[in-house]
From TrEMBL:
Pathway: Amino-acid biosynthesis; L-methionine biosynthesis via de novo pathway; O-succinyl-L-homoserine from L-homoserine: step 1/1. One of its GO terms (molecular function) is homoserine O-succinyltransferase activity. Transfers a succinyl group from succinyl-CoA to L-homoserine, forming succinyl-L-homoserine. GO terms for cellular component: cytoplasm. The active site is at residues 157, 323, 356. This is Homoserine O-succinyltransferase. InterPro entries: AB_hydrolase_1, AB_hydrolase_fold, HAT_MetX-like. The lineage of its organism: Bacteria, Pseudomonadati, Pseudomonadota, Gammaproteobacteria, Pseudomonadales. Residues 51-360 form the AB hydrolase-1 domain. The record marks 325 as: Important for acyl-CoA specificity.
């Protein structure tokens, strides 16, 4: 329970649901005849509707980015360190919109939703979705909210890919793209990590071909393994070493395969256990495939410069020195392409020991730079 809601918090917030009845054609060739998106807003939309900021979430993120849903909450939203009065995304200046993407498992239409054709949960029958599909659905949400142009679209990791796609798909509807710890497309190694995670889920006997809900089952072991693999890649070697080293769990070795010997093993098992209780396996498969398939330059003969020529936004990119999942070199690829395409771009490479997860943390240099850039674009 929060001891007090501080002055720099957005306070208590309530999610809303927007229903859409116009069909949405997806990149995979299928069409959603209707769908819904769950979202939250923080701050006030000004009379010109010119101060709106869209927050795009990463793989396991959702709409609850800041504040609290009730006084019983033990933790605020996932990006509370950066959203609120006086914070980098200052709700005294901006109207902030955060949503759960299509295919998610936190309230938007996804595998857990009822399929009107069968009366059962979609499960594995939910269509494949892409970053481009998400951006199209987000544009419709903007229309619903009366927002013709975002002051900024902001995201880290997979969220940064969405911000980049916004600048390409809707160049007139975004003034600034803030792309943090992201990439223009995944490397082969990143795709490989995602495939290992998917195979952990697909090979779980309780996955049941993606229709585990009908059997009242959860592919818990597969989800745990997928999260453990993923979590290792989100942290740096330095961060894991500083946090755990080779510390033993019980000050002795057990000489077996089932018990936990090291603190890092205990931590990974905890993370896997916690994740398997709150996230949907089919959603995990969908989100990792959306990551794998993101490659906007593919439509332009792999020419990223040509791809970004259509953009009209100004760009801010940030990366972190120990992030090996989305290394600074990947951000610099985008920066170099933007410069060659004659776009306005700011770039900062931040010294941080936390690895990829750094974009979620209140690292002083990061927060300072983030706040400075956002203050420049406040209207």
């Amino acid at each position: 329970m929060p001891t007090a809601i501080t002055a720099d918090s957005v306070g208590l917030v309530s999610p809303r649901v927007a229903h859409f009845t116009a069909p949405l054609k997806l990149a995979c060739g299928r069409t959603l005849t209707d769908y819904h998106l769950i979202y939250e807003t923080y701050g006030t939309l000004n009379a010109q509707a010119s101060n709106a900021v869209l927050i795009c979430h990463a793989l396991s993120g959702h709409h609850h980015a800041a504040g609290y849903h009730s006084m019983d909450d033990t933790k605020p939203g996932w990006w509370d360190s950066c959203i609120g009065p006086g914070k980098p995304i200052d709700t005294n200046q901006f109207f902030v919109v955060s949503l759960n993407n299509l295919g998610g498992c936190n309230g938007s239409l996804g595998p857990l939703s009822l399929n009107p054709a069968t009366g059962k949960a979609y499960g594995a029958d939910f269509p494949m979705v892409t970053v481009e599909d998400w951006v199209h659905s987000q544009a419709r949400l903007a229309d619903r909210l009366g927002i013709n142009q975002w002051a900024a679209v902001v995201g880290g990791s997979l969220g940064g890919m969405q911000a980049l796609q916004w600048s390409i798909s809707y160049p007139d509807r975004i003034r600034h793209a803030v792309v943090i710890a992201s990439a223009p497309r995944l490397s082969a190694q990143n795709i490989a990590f995602n495939e290992v995670a998917r195979q952990a889920i697909l090979s779980d006997p309780e996955f049941c071909g993606g229709h585990f809900q009908e059997q009242n089952l959860i592919p818990k072991r597969g989800l745990m393994l997928a999260r453990m693999v993923g979590h290792i890649t989100y942290l740096s070697d330095d961060a894991m070493g500083a946090k755990f080293g080779r510390d033993l769990k019980n000050d002795k070795l057990n000489y077996d395969f089932n018990s936990v010997a090291f603190q890092v093993e205990s931590y990974l098992r905890y993370q896997g256990e916690e994740f398997s209780g709150r996230f949907d396996a089919n959603t995990y498969l969908l989100m990792t495939k959306a990551l794998d398939y993101f490659d906007p330059a593919a439509a332009y003969n792999d020419d990223l410069v040509r791809t970004l020529e259509v953009a009209k936004a100004d760009f801010c990119l940030m990366s972190f020195t120990t992030d090996w999942r989305f290394s600074p070199a990947r951000s610099r690829e985008i920066v170099d392409a933007l410069l060659e395409a004659r776009k306005n771009v700011s770039y900062l490479e931040i010294e941080a020991s936390q690895g990829h997860d750094a974009f979620l943390l209140p690292i002083p240099r990061y927060v300072q730079a983030f706040r400075t850039y956002m203050n420049r674009i406040a209207v």
